[in-house]
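[job 4417] fold queue: 2 targets
>>> target A
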Amino acid sequence: MARASGRDVHAWADAWLRTSGPDLLTPTVTEHTDHDTNWTLTLEHHGNRPHRLHIGAYDGAHHRATHEIELTAGQPTTTLTAPGNRPDLLIVNDGDLTYAKVRLDPRSWTTAQNVLSQLPDPLSRTVVWNAARDMVRDAELPPHAYLEAARHHLPTEPETAIVESVLAFATTQITDRYLAGEEPARTEALTLLTELATDLAHHATERQDNAKHLIAQRTAIRSATGETPLRTWLADDTTGHDPELRWRILYRLATLGATDETEIRAEAERDPSAQGEEGAARCLAALPDPEAKATAWHALFDPADTLSNYLFTATAQGFWQPEERQRELLRPYVERYFPAAAGVATRRGHALAVATARHAFPHPFTDHTTLTLAEAALREPLPQALHRKLTDETDDLRRALRVRERPWT
């Protein structure tokens, strides 16, 4: 390829295939009115990859112009100057032409909160959502600002993939990790997501969009804070709940302590499939009951290793829960997790090593005690697959801690 193209493909491979982590591109915008009005964008480049990208300039949601920028590997900054008043919204990497984390300058984020769902190109909207997500993860944007943007824009977002991605981050990271143990902030976030799900379902029904309607149902189930709506949905056969949705509802009831083993076993008899077996394992492990937690822990980590890979994953997913009533029940297991995970990974190999770190990690406990335990575990000899995945989880834990400890105003 290098001979045929006349380009240094080896250097490209070193930068793009053998270098870990994304580069970061941060814009600063300056307006000039001394003579002719113009504006300058200074793009700060943290990283060592070359980039060719577009800067999208918008007045509100209306596209004004596209400017091309090229950065060489390791080039720290570049500037772009254009005539006229600065645009309301500048999207770095508009069209998603390169691989990098990007930021929105303050005025652009303010504009995006008002016009995001109106931007005509789904790739532009995706870049803005991804930028907002990364700003939250890096403690540069308050989590509630992301949730408010989702509440405002997702109900009318036409792209299913965007809706699904934004809600996945809002639930798995913001409500269940960044806000775990933070009351009443977590309850308020779940209430916001419930309202969002209601509006999303309404718009999906109007447009006969079954995919978004299903996403709305799943979000409403996951964000429910009380038993009543869940019971109504479970009993209402006219809503067409398939077994997958019934298990989601029962799982949320189990997490809230609003069901018991008898009801879970009865549902498993109703659904004798592999999905039903996994659903029952997940629900039983989620019950906020000391005996249920002890039984699930024993099944996960006892050297007899009786669980299949699928049942191990389901049980691990159910075990750790961010609900306030579960935290004291689960806290003693945090310290036990790390040596237990090493044991499973050693006995059962690569797939279970990854599952143990990904699904059985104590995600709701975003605190310095968990971080200290994780860092100590990484200093011990561990199977390679477990060490790699625990390294990732520990890095995510550090990020989550920075988000939680940032004094948002």
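>>> target B
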Amino acid sequence: MSGGAPLIGILGGYGAVGEAAARALVAEGGVRLRIGGRNPEAAARCVAALGGECEAAEADARSQESLERFVRGCDVLLHCAGPAYELGDGPRRAAAAAGAGYVDVMDGCGPGPAPAGERTAVLSAGLSPGLSGLLPRLLTDEWQPREAARFSGYYVSLGAFTRTGAVDYLLSLDRGYGTPRAQWRDGRVVHGALRGTERREVAGVPHPVTTYPYLTQELVGQARALGLAEARWYNAFDGRHLLDALNRFRAGDDRSDSLEAQALAVVRASTLDALGRTPYHVLCGELEFPGPGGTPTRRTAVIRGEDGSAMTGVVGAVAAREVARGRIPRGVHRAGQVLAPREVLDALRRHLPGTVVVLDGEVAGGVAADGLVLEDGLL
């Protein structure tokens, strides 16, 4: 690392995700920031609003020369630009060439070979993937043995997609991000184990939503590392328009359209679902295991926030800060496996006061039930 306070370059630093990360890092202090993107004027406006030790720089994520120029002198590069799947691994290669650590709020565009000379890389440091991967660890931290534990996770969101978010969402469906209707059981992925869409009640959401089983690679990694007996993940939809649009995409009905047209269809559908309603993002994890005397026991964790981009930015900021401090060992890691769950939750509550975290209890209608055990003031 260079002398003085570490320098963190934020690619896409004036976008919704990058600016949230920058605000969190400035508030925590102890680092310098370089805010970059294709629009130097927007970067300069962002720096002026942030205050602190910040500088603006132009950075074109589609130009390797521009990326390498931007990251030169940085200790860590935090990649918040998008669409991530269209930009590929250029930012990661630029960080490796500069000898800088690397943090990506997405999944790093797949498990391709690490760039030559890469130091420390933390991938999937966002909301989902990222915060979603911390749920199994949060629930199993104080419980052993795990061999008989069954984990179920849910991600429910309501809000209009951005064009960039829609492109990344669609591309992730074809990039091995997860497996529809699969379940982790007895140390392996069981394909076709679960039924399709179902109406379910999910803790933290005041009414039933439509769930679709989609076993993510993130959860597979956590289930394997934690030794869970079973693991399931569900994407859930609060409205019919977005689900209908995605079903058309999965069925191939829209594949003759351009990616841009498909993404705009997702933006329109998500906007229709959210009309006149308050946006939200809920991550829910449930762990079932035999308690004392074999009594069936359940632990529940619910994280609810208002702004998915801001939540993603804060998780990315925590990861970048940990890398800058040298607290993440050299090598390539997924955020859900190396970040401390409670530190991430504390950061979300500090920087996003609308975030609600409920642990170790039942949640009904979005309100903690009587007898809920709250730890460290989490609510």
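[job 4417] complete. Note on B: The CA atoms of residues 37 and 59 lie 5 Å apart.
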